Amino acid sequence: MINKPYISTYQKNRHKRKVYTILIILFFIFVSFIISMNTGYIRLSPLQLLETLIGMGTEQQNLTLFEFRLPRIVISILVGMGLALAGCVLQGVSGNPLADPGILGINSGAGLAVVLFISFFPSTSDVPVMFLPLLAFIGAGVTATLIYVLSYKRGEGISPTRLMLTGVAIAAGISAAMIILTLRLTPENYQFVAVWLAGSIWGSNWMFVLSLLPWLLILIPYIFVKARVLNILNLGEVTATGLGVNIEKERLFLLAAAVALAGSSVSVSGGIGFIGLIAPHLARQLVGGKHQFVIPASAALGALLLLIADTIGRWFIQPSEIPAGIVVAVIGAPYFLYLLAKSKA
Amino acid sequence: MPTLAIDQVKVGYSNLIILDDLSVEIPEKKMTTIVGANGCGKSTLLKAIARILKTQKGAVYLDGKAIQLLSTKEVAKKMAILPQSSQVPTGLTVYELISYGRFPYQTGLGTLKVDDLKHINWAIEATGLNALKDRSVEALSGGQRQRVWIAMALAQDTEILILDEPTTYLDLAHQLDILLLLQKLNKEQKRTIVMVLHDLNHASRVSHNLIAMRNGAIIEEGTPKQVMTRSNLKAIFDIEATMSTCPFSNNPIYLSYTLN
Fold first, then answer.
1. Of residues A8, A95, A292, nearest to B110 (C-beta)
2. Substitution target from B60, B81, B138 for chain A, most A beta carbons within 10 A
3. pLDDT-derived band at A2, boundaries 50, 70, 90
4. Any residues with CB less than 8 A from the CB of A113 and at least 6 apart, and which?
5. A271: alpha, beta or left, given left = phi > 0 and alpha = psi -120 to 50?
6. Domain CATH for A233
7. Which of A20, A97, A98, B33 is deepest in the core (most CB within 10 A)?
8. What is the pLDDT of residue A126?
9. In chain A, how many domains are there?
10. CB A203 within 8 A of CB A130
């Protein structure tokens, strides 16, 4: 060996800059968190907010903050993280920067399960609400499995391109089925489904936080550990094999993790798209291509984006509100087009 | 037992069999080049050696053990692969990409240890990339990128290097530049190099050992002097060649040729 081991100051500074970037995003989440606690039909001034937080608020303030607003904010943050990480993993596994959890049929599968349930049990409208996350999750899982099996080819395994194309085809089929099913719904049920599909973060109580949290607590550390593998998968199949990555196995587990993350997120938030596309992409622009940084930055940006979107949705046309999914789509669709226009291929 | 032996392998894609009952040994610490016409199975053979394609029958033996039975990470510590074209990831510096070569040795979150840094710095030095190491990989020219990929393979610290047409897409000077770099690595580091090259004169110039293929079978194998003959070129490519000698390597080269 000729040289003493060293890392150049450039690399060290690059490293530091990435850490600071992530800290700045976390700071923005904190600020949005506070603004979001103020925002809504019932205004809470900063002073009232402080009083309520330290346990000196009125009953109405307590109810608003602890039973409605806080769980909703926490869910926005968790769902944003979940969807962003799912997108990050999918983009890493497929090598396609435009991949999004929607492509694995997660949104459409979850939506179909919800529509099916409501169209078969239209009268028991109070009961299904508690079942919906579970149903949506099963719908997402079944669809993702179907897409995986259909794009599997013996001897060759899963090719990302085939996976994407199968996903698009299945999603189109499911959308058609959903339109037929929704035609038969009563107006109230139809409205519920429409709001669900638009991604309204409807499940805003602590129970839904608890149903989402275990998934994130298991899957987020798993994805962090797989950062190195995602780095290598990005180099293409041959190079990845050469570096000792068991491609088939890693792909399967990472896809399953992405489905579980996105499925559990969508089940409490409704059909929110684009977060999984935008957050990882922005993250790569900000912190470069190494997944050790892209993963935390994506999670933080996803949380920030959805929190902001939900806050805007609550504030914009009071006393009514716009579903967060719509706000995200309004920002996301032009950004997606911008990405397409900019991509070289 | 040589480090790398191919024993009666049958390889193909789904129902299409490309190689059947093919056996060959790769000499240790030498440069071996596989040559042949388009579609003769040379890339398939290279992919089978590199465990990219699974053998349907027979096996590739690495240090006497069937490669499919070894853990892929263990193989990655002995054998590095450079594909014909690689996906260029976005947002990486040259240094970062080369550091990915340490993957088989890393655990957990992948913090680079002293040993990793040593190998990365050595690989950068050996490929002359010191001035470029903080540049973005996307901003490099084709020849520079190929050097980066080679550096990544070197950082992997393997006895065997496998390269699929490492000079494709490069101009004349950069082609030779890459080949001489490989030759230097073979001489100074005693690394076993196996590659596919299209340019016969280049293959003849730098290789110790040539494997000539046609229709999925090996027609001739040996030193450039044994393989690069007029009659062999006719058998391999159906061409009528005028032969000469390379003034730099003293190995045979073709001067020009006509179709048979």
1. A292
2. B81
3. very low
4. A135, A136, A138, A139, A140, A142
5. beta
6. 1.10.3470.10
7. B33
8. 55
9. 1
10. no
CB contact under 8 A, A244 and B104: yes
Using one digit for the tens of pLDDT, what is the confidence trace for A171-180?
Answer: 889 989 888 8
**CB distance from B50 to chain A under 8 Å?**
yes
Q: pLDDT at position A3, please? A: 47
* ipTM score of complex: 0.89
CA distance A295 to A249: 20
**Cβ distance of A231 and B100 shorter than 8 Å:** yes
| More confident call, B138 vs A95 | B138
Give the C-alpha separation, B204 to A313, whole Å.
70
**Are A1 and B122 in contact (CB < 8 Å)?**
yes
| Domain hosting residue A230, numbered range | 3-342
3-state secondary structure chain B: CCCEEEEEEEEEECCEEEEEEEEEEECCCCEEEEEECCCCCHHHHHHHHCCCCCCCEEEEEECCEEHHHCCHHHHHCCEEEECCCCCCCCCCEHHHHHHHHHHHHCCCCCCCCHHHHHHHHHHHHHCCCHHHCCCEHHHCCHHHHHHHHHHHHHHCCCCEEEEECCCCCCCHHHHHHHHHHHHHHHHHHCCEEEEECCCHHHHHHHCCEEEEEECCEEEEEECHHHHCCHHHHHHHHCEEEEEEECCCCCCEEEEEEEEC
Asked whether the predicted pLDDT for residue A124 surpasses 80, the reply is no
Residue A267 vs residue B133, higher pLDDT = B133
For residue A43, is pLDDT > 90?
no
Average pLDDT of every residue of chain B? 92
Token output for A317:
């046309």
pLDDT tens figures, B163-179? 999 998 888 998 999 99
pLDDT at B1: 43
pTM across the whole model: 0.88
- Of residues A248, A279, A265, the one with CA closest to residue A88: A279
